[in-house]
Amino acid sequence: MDTRTRQQLLRLSTDFYRAHATGFDASRGHHPWPGWERLLEWLPEPGTNTLSVLDVGCGNARLATFLASAGHRLRYVGVDANAALLNAARERLAPDLIPEVELIESDFLASSSPGESLPDGPFDLVALFGVLHHVPGRDWRMRLVRELIERAAPGGLVAVAAWQFAGRDRFERRRVEWNEIGAIRGESIDPSQLEEGDHLLRFGTDPDLPPRYCHQVADRELDELETNLEACGLDVDSIGDYRADGAEGDLNRYRVLRRRRSPEGTPHTQDS
Length: 272
Prior knowledge:
- The protein starts with a helix and ends in a 13-residue tail after the last strand.
- The protein has a 7-stranded mixed sheet with strand order 3-2-1-4-5-10-9, sandwiched between helices. A 3-stranded antiparallel sheet has the order 6-7-8.
- It has helices spanning 3-28, 36-39, 62-69, 83-92, 138-151, 169-172, 181-185, 219-223, 225-231, and strands at 51-56, 74-80, 101-105, 123-128, 152-163, 175-176, 198-201, 212-215, 236-244, 252-259.
- The protein is α/β, with parallel strands linked by helices.
- The protein has 9 helices and 10 strands.
């Protein structure tokens, strides 16, 4: 995928959330995804220590509310590019949780290397929920996950959810054909630069509002994640692979990675 096409797709996402932030927040509320419940089995026992969390693309920060309701003391850092969603988070957070939460407005996909602007960490849990499908290009998706791993503490978790929307009737009805985007945006996208699995989806029924770019992350890409990370010099174990969420319980596929602890006296491997 060339730089021009990547930037066009990123602008689609930015414009989409700018136009739809209020409705998007209202449709999600503060209800946790059922798939998050599985994460609890790999986290430390609540109350033992403060759990440090980096929530990338945090939206309205409902993950913080979920973890706190499970009994965890938090040091939570949420990062999102949309100011309206972050304001919604501030309004909804419980008063006793606000001091434990830091919300940062930052477009972590805006630089030449995705995720390089994220807070350094280390964190016990790094979460990427509802984001991967907006990252254009397999190379960028891999580079973003590498950045997340580097922000996990030794023994810490990186949890990634990939939205499995393709082929489902309710999402197929919202698809916009790529040849229509010129009339909507005033500029065309070169279809030869797109990957298999790249789609445009509407949110709501207003045809004048911008659609969003979404990529169906293939099972094979997720299956190869651990191998590709190790090839980059990152020591990880895949400890969770499951499907959850939605009416049929399979709307997201989760991969949970644990960053290995280095042998005593050996510095932990960092990506070069």
